[in-house]
Write a structure and sequence with these properties.
mainly alpha; MetI-like fold; 9 helices; elongated; disordered C terminus
Length: 220
C-alpha cells in the first residue's frame, strides 16, 4: 500500500507536468502567431527590414539564459513576468527562423502563378503559403514548447516564479534539494520527469525533422 505522502507527492508531480505543458501552450499562443506575422511583415529586403533584423540579431547574440533571468528578476514574480521573459528571449530567433521559410514559400512557381492570375493576398496566405509552412511551424512549436518548459523550470527552481505554491517541476526540484540525502526521490523523480518530458519533445522534433529533411539532419 502507498502511504498518503507518496500519493500526495505523485499528484504534485502530475500537476507539475500539466502546469509546464499548459504554460508552454500559453507561450505558443502568444509567440508563434506574432513571430509568423513579423516574418510575413518583414519578408521584403528594405531599410526597415534590415534595421528590424539588426535589432533581432543583437537580442539573439545576448546570452539567452542570462537575459531570461535578468528580465524575470526585473519584471517581478508573476505569471506575466514569466511570459514576457520567455517572449523576449524566444521570439527574435523564431522570427528569424520562420522568415526564411516564408520567403522560400513565396518563391515557389505556383505561388507566383497564382499571384499573376490575380489571387488575393488572403487566398495566397491561406491556400498556398500556410500549407507549405505546416512542417516548419509544427517543429518550431514543439521546439518552443521544449524551451519554454526548460525556462519555466529554471525560473521556478531559482525562486523567480509568481507563486511559491505553484505545482511546478522546477519548484519541486528546488524543494527536493533539502531532502536529497534523506528522501532522494523527492529530487530525483521531478528531475526524471523533466528529463523525460524534454526528451520526448526533442524526439518528436527529430522525427518531424527527418520527414522534412530526407537526410535526417536535426532541424532545430
Amino acid at each position: 500500500m502507498f502511504n498518503s505522502s507518496f500519493v500526495s507527492f505523485t499528484l504534485k508531480l502530475l500537476e507539475g507536468v500539466l502546469y509546464s505543458i499548459s504554460l508552454g501552450g500559453k507561450c505558443l499562443v502568444l509567440c508563434l502567431p506574432f513571430s509568423l506575422f513579423c516574418a510575413f511583415l518583414f519578408k521584403k529586403e528594405n531599410l526597415v527590414t534590415k534595421s528590424f533584423l539588426s535589432i533581432l540579431d543583437v537580442v539573439i547574440a545576448l546570452p539567452n539564459q542570462l537575459l531570461l533571468l535578468s528580465i524575470a528578476g526585473v519584471s517581478g514574480g508573476s505569471i506575466g513576468a514569466i511570459l514576457i521573459s520567455i517572449f523576449i528571449t524566444q521570439v527574435p530567433g523564431l522570427i528569424r527562423h520562420l522568415r526564411v521559410y516564408v520567403i522560400q514559400a513565396h518563391s515557389y512557381e505556383y505561388v507566383e502563378a497564382a499571384r499573376a492570375l490575380g489571387a488575393s493576398r488572403l487566398r495566397l496566405f491561406f491556400v498556398h503559403i500556410i500549407p507549405r509552412l505546416f512542417l516548419p511551424l509544427s517543429i518550431s512549436a514543439l521546439s518552443l514548447l521544449k524551451r519554454v518548459i526548460l525556462s519555466e523550470s529554471l525560473l521556478m527552481f531559482l525562486g523567480l516564479g509568481f507563486d511559491p505554491l505553484t505545482p511546478s517541476l522546477g519548484r519541486l526540484l528546488s524543494e527536493g534539494r533539502s531532502y536529497l540525502f534523506l528522501s532522494p526521490e523527492r529530487f530525483l523523480l521531478p528531475a526524471l520527469l523533466l528529463f523525460l518530458l524534454l526528451y520526448i519533445l526533442q524526439s518528436v522534433c527529430d522525427r518531424f525533422s527527418s520527414l522534412f529533411d530526407p537526410k535526417g539532419v536535426r532541424y532545430l
